[in-house]
Input
Amino acid sequence: MVKLVLVLGDQLSDGLSALGAADKTIDVVVMAEVMGEATYVPHHPKKIAFLFAAMRKFAARLEGQGWRVVYSKLDDADNPKTISGALLAAAQAHGTSEVIATEPGEWRVIKALEDVPLDVTVLPDTRFMATHAEFEAWAEGRKALRMEYFYRDMRRKTGLMMEGDKPAGGQWNFDHDNRKPAPGSVTYEGPLRFQTDDVTREVLTLVRENFSNNFGSLDDFWFATDREQALQHLHHWVQGGLAQFGDFQDAMMGDEKFLYHAIVGLYINAGLLDPLEVCQAVEEAWKHGTAPINAAEGFIRQIIGWREYVRGIYFLEGPEYTSRNALKHNRNLPALYWGEKTWMRCMDKAIDQTREEAYAHHIQRLMVTGNFALLIGVEPTQIHEWYLAVYADAFEWVEAPNVIGMSQFADGGIIASKPYISSGNYIDKMSDYCKGCSYKVKVKTGPDACPFNLLYWHFLDRNRAAFSNNHRMGNMYRVWDKMDAEKRETVLAEADAFLAKLDAGETV
Ligand code: FAD
Ligand code: DLZ
Ligand code: SF4
Output
């Protein structure tokens, strides 16, 4: 019997396990642009355009390889609206009930495949370095699931930057060399920008017609939308950006949206690039002496360490992970996350570039928008859905552990051993944001005080009980406790006043 081969929007890889298990002379590939996937959160229009254009080009690529592809465009009169609907319609048209799928990256879609009344075989997603079983075995019996130890196993497994059984350069991790503050100027020209073509133009019109009310600009669309372009982009960055990636990985600049970052997350996550080939390109550059060890190791750690580790946590912890709320936070996400005016320059810059590019780099996500949401106590699911919507690289398996776990400490400390919070001081040290801000980062109280300075102590004070056994937080509480009692009261009262203004919808 003919089988249907499901290929989802983030499964655009020649080596996809579902394709590998099918027969192109008999079986039929099913791909569908559907409102169900395009609206489960209000995705950034550039993210939707990127995925739809990449899906259309991948469908054409498969046809070129000899596959029969049933492709539904969003504006087709008989568009099936959901993934399940697409499978049911194709099953009827081809007189079959058999489906081969590769495991989706979201529990919601996994459930949909379980529920569809067809005979669905779900194969493992082999585009990762660690299988679920390997991650479970690594996690088994450990008191703390620290990424660093998992990463070392992945170095051994892949052989990347290894000299025998020893790490190249004599140490596993060069992170201490990767914390330089914002440079005076950036010498890398930034990501390779691609001209629109017939496919992207048609998709941009479709997205403009259907999603123009979503947060995010569709202007100046430049993403790569097929594998060849993504590879060109990768090599452009390896040549121009990688060498200084390590040094300035944590830096932030108001007028430099990309610094030395690779901007490969969206391409790897959609399947256009393979994570191992990306790491091998970086390792090659290091071997040829065009990239220093701290840059190459730092980058490879992000991919075979963090990326694999967060995926392991997502599947280990199960579908309830996204509803965790260890600190019982319940504030609504402020409108400034959707582009309403704010005087906080760091937030304004990070959110504005998110609106323009569907991109912000790691430290902007973690220490600006994530830090602020945590300090003010946003309900974790609301900020989780924001991140899932606004970034082109956001799919739940990778986004949720980063937001719920790393950024919001809502999983109670599975991913982070202490919350990633900071006052304005850290942002000032790592960025050029504060110089042009309406608030004064050195001012601790009063109308000019940087809100992060007030909110930092407010967070610690209100969450004291939750952290009473966390030894890594001891120093912070000792500094707070030593502060003059009157000053403490002023800080808390001013933080409360700030939060009241925020809740009232006033510009802060
Ligand atoms: P670079 O800075 O150049 O890093 C290289 C690559 O390493 C990334 O492309 C990515 O594949 C990988 N990587 C780095 N850090 C992580 C990490 N913590 N988890 C997983 N992979 C990592 N990453 C996503 O891919 N999708 C998300 O939805 C996402 N949401 C995030 C939300 C928050 C709150 C935080 C703190 C981080 C999030 N990240 C997410 C991780 C990281 O910020 C992005 O991978 C990175 O900014 C993508 O930009 P880049 O490709 O230029 O990465
Ligand atoms: C994110 C996304 C969007 C916006 N649209 C589609 C779509 O129309 N069709 C599709 O197959 N996939 C889409 N995706 C990606 C899926 O949501 C993704 O496969 C799941 O989130 C699992 O990672
Ligand atoms: Fe952000 Fe405070 Fe600096 Fe302003 S002063 S940019 S609010 S950290």
